[in-house]
């Protein structure tokens, strides 16, 4: 690739001269070639004073510097500057380093002042409809989000929960329907949710206002796998309200767990201090509390199959996980419904009550309304509801299929072989002999094993 040379002072003078002449009505079909061939342009350049030429020489010097910088700044195949990517990588490393230091200072200060049990943390979880790439950065369109204030002593103390009903942009509706169907089950453009992102920001700011420390919002903790979704939500809310997104710091929940464990696992003999970083990531992937009911939002309480994805329920699962690990070292008494799920209602049912309920159970064919989710078409243009309706057998069809089916008759030819030399002929003769005993027209299936 040839070296990108800078343009000289005469080049910038020609551009200036052409603009002036075009303003007077002249045209230059070949562009700067016509200007360069024009004797008037050359003569005027030669008659310029040194001071007048200095203006164009300064422009040429700046252009040369820019040209040299552009050559050194290599690009990726996506057009991204390698220097910019390296700078972002350094910033990310510095952010992680500052995050670890800040969390450690918070935990150590709380331990020294003996109020770690009362120390409050802010959790956040986001469900989303679709993801699009803007300037090589993924943007997630939120469906639901929850911010919760947590302490080891009181569990989840306060919650800010919102379902988003904003209009889905053109071209992303199908993806939104599929994501909803396979996870949180929130309908697209749900009527009971919020529409204006600026209003959502104001309500979130009001919720976090009382938790500010020295005019700074509390750190927002979420799982490492969800940081992009949360960052995208914060960006969307701040852009709508024209506020600075840098005022919100998103930290990893696993890092918080690690620093808590480094301090509190010293009092537990059943935990290995050397495996804390790995354990911190693994513990939040367990399904210990995923299917416990009662902590979901009002919408997911009445939706089948989506409660375990509810943002409010996910925050409660994180809280129970932390309480299960760290309440005992702090001598905190476990309270059902606060530090662990309240399963007392389930314990009230004995076998007699359960059998009574099962005997009175009635299964009815309830007509399901055709929602947007049921109407999602596959690549062949068929909805899931239609596929199940057409391909499924009725009870009468299944009974008729079983009655008309013929059993498979297994023939072990090895029992009828006289010698190893005539295996094939023996097998064929036996099958012909067996088949000749069957009435003409009667269907039968044979499986022959040769040993």
In short:
With 451 residues, this protein is an alpha/beta fold.
Write a structural description.
Among the domains are: 61 residues, no CATH class; 248 residues, 2-Layer Sandwich (Nucleotidyltransferase, domain 5), CATH 3.30.420. Helix content is 45%, strand content 12%. The strands form 2 sheets. The chain has a 5-stranded mixed beta sheet with strand order 3-2-1-4-5, with helices on both faces. A two-stranded parallel ribbon has the order 6-7. The longest helix has 31 residues. It has 451 residues and is of the alpha/beta class. It contains 16 helices and 7 strands. About 1% of the residues have low confidence. It is found in: Cytoplasm; Nucleus. This is Protein maelstrom 2. One of its GO terms (cellular component) is P granule. Its main location: cytoplasm. Keywords: Cytoplasm, Developmental protein, Differentiation, DNA-binding, Meiosis, Nucleus, RNA-mediated gene silencing.
Query: From the coordinates shown, what is the CATH architecture of the domain at 83-330?
Result: 2-Layer Sandwich
Tell me the span between the first and last alpha carbons.
71 Å
Give, in order, the helices and strands. Answer: HHHHHEEEHHEHEHHHHHHHEHE
What is the CATH topology of the domain at 83-330?
Nucleotidyltransferase, domain 5
Which CATH class of the domain at 83-330?
Alpha Beta
Give the strand tally: 7
Quick check: average pLDDT? Answer: 84
Largest sheet: 5 strands, mixed
Instruction: Output the strand order for the largest sheet.
Output: 3-2-1-4-5
How does the overall form come out from the CA principal axes?
Answer: extended
Low-confidence stretches: 366-370
Provide a count of the helices.
16
Subcellular location: Cytoplasm; Nucleus
Organism: Cyphomyrmex costatus
GO molecular function: sequence-specific DNA binding
Domain HMG box: 3-75
